[in-house]
Amino acid sequence: MEQITPFFEKKSDCMFCGSSFHSMKLRSKFIKILSYDTDFRPIYSDIGINPLLYKILVCPHCGFSFSEEFSTSFPPLTKDVIREKVTSRWVPHQYGGNRTISDAIKTYKLASYCALLKKEKHITSAGLFLRIAWLYRETQPEHEPRFLALAQKEYEQSYSSADFRGTQVSEIKLLYIIGEISRRIGDFSNAARHLSMVIEKQKHTTETKIVEMAKDQWQQIRQLKAN
Fold first, then answer.
1. Quick one: three-class SS letters along 201-222?
2. Which residues contact 215 (CB under 8 A, 6 or more apart)?
3. Residue 194 in contact with residue 179, Cβ under 8 Å?
């Protein structure tokens, strides 16, 4: 009997050039989450079985890199810009096999650049930057604050433009993540303001776990100020 492994190859089509390619994915039954950081980073029981490493699809033919959160439509002129800035400069590279954390960071950076050129929603770009920060937290924590700050900016613009609506990110979760990222990078006034906004909405939400997390983080800020 053939043994089932955690990894399998999945066929995808590039949303930019239309070419087909294969990427490695993980079977869900092998993924075990032990806990979550306060900014929702999942901590897996096996560092080698981490679905975050395989979230980004990189077309080996044209270099366009994207996730399932990307919209399928391209605003006017963006294809020309992507063709000039990405595909014309692409040196063929394969990210379809097993990935290290370093490989994964490269794929997220490629996707964040493509998202910028494609004019993706701020909520999508924010998620890419946050995941880069998570991966650096495990390997090179000195680089983490830079990408948390980029995520904070994109999340704030998402809230201002309301482009998070219709996604899996609720208003409460968005306010919380802005507050928690702000706390992590030392922007305590911004953190307190957004966490307070979460707490103020506690009577109008069913996401009580996030409200409790906001209270915990707000209390930490208060204690820091007291000291």
1. CHHHCCCHHHHHHHHHHHHHHH
2. 195, 199
3. yes
Q: How far apart (Å, rounded) are the C-alpha atoms in residues 43 and 18?
A: 35
Residue 197: domain span: 170-227
Strands 20-26 and 65-66: unpaired
Cβ-in-10-Å burial (0-12, 13-18, 19+) of 127 comes to: buried
Residue 67 CA, chain-centre distance (Å), reads: 10
State the Cα–Cα distance between residues 214 and 196, nearest whole angstrom. Answer: 8
Instruction: Quote the pTM value.
Output: 0.96
Model confidence pLDDT, tens digit, residues 12-25:
999 999 999 999 99
E strand or H helix at 22: strand 20-26
Give the end-to-end CA distance of the chain in Å, rounded to a whole number: 63
Interval 53-67 mean pLDDT: 97
Residue 175 has pLDDT above 90, yes or no: yes
Q: Which of 134, 161, 188 is the last residue of a domain?
A: 161
Taking residues 92-98, report their average pLDDT: 91
- Picking from 137, 161, 185, the residue at the C-terminal end of a domain is 161
Q: Maximum Cα–Cα distance for the chain, whole Å?
A: 63
Residues 13 and 92 in one domain: yes
**How many whole angstroms separate alpha carbon 151 and alpha carbon 123?**
9
In a domain, 1, yes or no: no
Helix segments in 23-143, DSSP class H: 78-85, 101-118, 122-139
Phi, psi of 173 (to 5 degrees): -65, -40
